[in-house]
Amino acid sequence: MNKVSTSSSSSSFININSNCNDNQNNNNNNLNNSIVNNYNYIDRVQNICNHIEVENCSSNNNNNSNRKMISNNFERVAIVSYVRTPMGGFNGSLASLSATELASIAIRKAIENVNHPKLVESIDEVLLGNVLSANVGQAPATQAALGAGIPDSVPCTAVNKVCASGMKAVMLGVNLIQTDCAKVIVAGGFESMSNVPYYLTSARNGYRMGHQQMIDGMIKDGLTDPFGNFHMGLAAERCSKDYSISKQEQDEYALNSYRRAQEATKNGWFNEEIVPITIPGTKAKPATVVSTDDEVSNANFEKLGNLQPSFQKENGTVTAGNASTISDGASILILMSESKAKEMGVPVIAYILGMADAAQEPIQFTTAPALAIPKALSKAGISQDQVDYYEINEAFSVVALANMKKLNIPHSKINVFGGAVSMGHPLGSSGSRIICTLLSVLKQRGGKIGVASICNGGGGASAIVISRE
């Protein structure tokens, strides 16, 4: 047997070297005897690895003779473009646009920023995070890609890892490039929480007499833990209790998030990452251009500290003011192998040094970044002291505070341009959005190494380490 299938597609499989094919039965017997008699476990693994190659399965390269050995020395993966839309508030400035329209706008701008005539034809795959797909339509990632002018011959895949979907899409793109299955990847995420429908769960089988309940699709599929049947906000309350983080601390953190986001907006520090969006006018309303995040200007510093708990009425600490806001938006990165970027003459913005996922009990998802970040740093060969800036998604203020405490990260290094509390949290986009913002932070502040991490429902988190050129 000289091929081991790893997918239903014939374009992706593992080949055993041809020197294992001659006199197969004799060789197998000799190899088995040798393994049993002469090798320990590590030697066996090394022996097998020495005979395994991976096909070059790039969509644009069908030459089966072009193979590379898998080793620890993967080719570096470069970020050559990053873009996000402004983040619209719930039923806010971007509510008239569908989720896939938002993604198409971001993809189109990311391609435009590279400014290379052959970029579009070089794209091997599109990977996009999306959480709330109800009523978005079939193949949302393909809708987004075709809407941006990417050919219909390019494979497209939607990824759902709840809040970490956008980051996981980027990580999967890195994997494809590292294993020589692709050279150019469009990756990111998108969400329109304003357009998520309500469900009539019994309508298909018919209703009987009496009132019936509508289910909020956004709450059910995006914001409710299915294992304990509780809102994500109650997990934040659990985190607040476990790590003795008071409402006052969370409120002060939220105020700082707004201050930082307002300063970054005022000084134009988001300008390179945000693509302005023109909203068509109507007879009653002229066309408008949206170029900043809706929520940034909505802070009421006097009232924020007086808001009542939203999820746990008695002794609760998490409020609408110190939690992230429901939002619409999209964020996109274009990834290339280092050799492809050099071949095309495309400037590199940053390299991805390492990445990791982590998971624990679902109710403790809030502190999973404290597990994922050290794993990603270890894979990158980077110490925590070498990191200049962090982006840890502010699903709730307590999430950032707890992970800062667990990892001993100073507030001066984390979310320095604000975060999801002040900017918004469109679920499928946030994981890639914080990478975009981290790139802006590193450029504006002169940093070299950055880490982005995001927790996700179900107990997980993802983290990625980047180095700016």
Automatic annotation (TrEMBL):
Gene3D superfamilies: 3.40.47.10. It is an enzyme of class 2 (transferase). Keywords: Acyltransferase, Transferase. Residues 77-339 form the Thiolase N-terminal domain. Pathway: Metabolic intermediate biosynthesis; (R)-mevalonate biosynthesis; (R)-mevalonate from acetyl-CoA: step 1/3. InterPro entries: Thiolase (IPR002155), Thiolase-like (IPR016039), Thiolase_acyl_enz_int_AS (IPR020615), Thiolase_AS (IPR020610), Thiolase_C (IPR020617), Thiolase_CS (IPR020613), Thiolase_N (IPR020616). GO terms for biological process: ergosterol biosynthetic process; fatty acid beta-oxidation. Its EC number is 2.3.1.9. Belongs to the thiolase-like superfamily. Thiolase family. This is acetyl-CoA C-acetyltransferase.
